[in-house]
Amino acid sequence: MIGWLPVLAGWLLAAGAADRLPDIVLITADTLRADYLGSYGCPWPTSPHVDQLAADALVFDDCICDVPLTAPSIGAMFTSQPPRMHGATRNGMMIHEDAPLLAEELKKAGYETACVQSTWTLKGRLCGLNRGFDRYDEDFHQKRWGIVIPERRAEEVTDRALAMLADRDPEKPLFLWVHYIDPHAPYIAHQGFNPAGKKPWGESPKDRARMRYASEIAYMDNQIGRLLSQLPAAACIIFTADHGESLYEHGYRGHGRHVYQDNLHIPLLLKAPGISPGRSSIPAQGMDLAPTIL
Predict the structure, then answer these.
(1) Distances (CA, A) of 208 to 26, 70, 256
(2) HSE of 90 in the Cβ direction (CA atoms, 13 Å)?
(3) What is the rounded CA–CA span in Å between residue 176 and residue 24?
(4) Is residue 45 within 8 Å of 36, Cβ to Cβ?
(5) Which long-range contacts (CB under 8 A, 24 or more apart) does 202-206 make?
């Protein structure tokens, strides 16, 4: 797999000489298991905006992440290499400097490259995924649990992404990566976002966790809807997640320590000119993302 990025980048450069390359928007949701989206069978109305995107996209029903940890998983998406090859086998470890990165190759092909991210695991100094980005917005300071681990909520992520869209170079195609952290623990019940239709008080710990997790997704979906409404009509849009989440299945809550489907099964939606909407049962995984985009 080592040699495919330079080859494809060369093809992009040749193609770009004749025709303008399309804008590409990659939206990733942290800790989002596929079956909590309506388009993947969730009975609660968690995701009307993502579901509308799904209706216009090619939906992959059988997509898994390469590892249920954020930076290693997204590293696999950006390099098309498994974590033990690209180097970041855990959060806080750097992608190898010689690993080919999607943003670098798109920049060489003439793209303006921009990112808004929202979690400490994707800080450039910790993972190296900022390589190739003209703008990599990682200026956030809100603390998870109020005391540790900086992140930013979906409303601010969308605000920053829309600001980048407004300030883009109109002479260049744009690659924009937007990462939302919200479904990650601790799960928050957001006012006005209660897809379960009842209050979590008095429910079992398992049901409380699932209801709050669904509320996080509904809140995030609302903000993703704001972003989707402002994207160029002809943009290629990819929506996926870094990994899933166990919600007391197998006696476990969280991710990173087991490889049950709850942790591995992620959504993958691809909307682009020339791609017919529908569903595919073809197996897919995170490492497919970079060559597919190119």
Answers:
(1) 31, 24, 21
(2) 2
(3) 6
(4) no
(5) 205/248, 206/247, 206/248
The first and second tokens of residue 151, run together, are 């992140």
Q: What is the 3-state secondary structure (H, E, C) of the chain?
A: CCCHHHHHHHHHHHHHHHCCCCCEEEEEECCCCHHHCHHHCCCCCCCHHHHHHHHCCEEECCEECCCCCHHHHHHHHHHCCCHHHHCCCCCCCCCCCCCCCHHHHHHHCCCEEEEECCEHHHCHHHHCCCCCCCEEECCCCEEECCCEEEECCHHHHHHHHHHHHHCCCCCCCEEEEEEECCCCCCCCCCCCCCCCCCCCCCCCHHHHHHHHHHHHHHHHHHHHHHHHHCCCCCCEEEEEECCCCEECHHHCEECCCCCCHHHHECCEEEECCCCCCEEECCCEEHHHHHHHHC
262 residue type, one letter: D
Cis-peptide into 48, omega within 30 deg: no
Q: How far is CA 9 from the centre of its chain?
A: 23
247 beta partners: 253
pLDDT in tens, 19-75: 789 999 999 999 999 999 999 999 999 999 999 999 999 999 999 999 999 999 999
Lowest mean pLDDT of 18-22, 126-130, 194-198, 258-262, name the range: 18-22
Contact between 193 and 215 under an 8 Å Cβ cutoff? The reply is yes
- How many other C-beta atoms lie within 10 A of the C-beta of residue 165? 17
* Residue 139, amino acid: D
Strand pairing partners for 59? 269, 279
Predicted structure pTM score: 0.92
The whole-angstrom separation of Cα 273 and Cα 158 is: 24
As given in the structure block, the two tokens for residue 134 are 């003209």
pLDDT band of 257, cuts 50, 70, 90 = confident
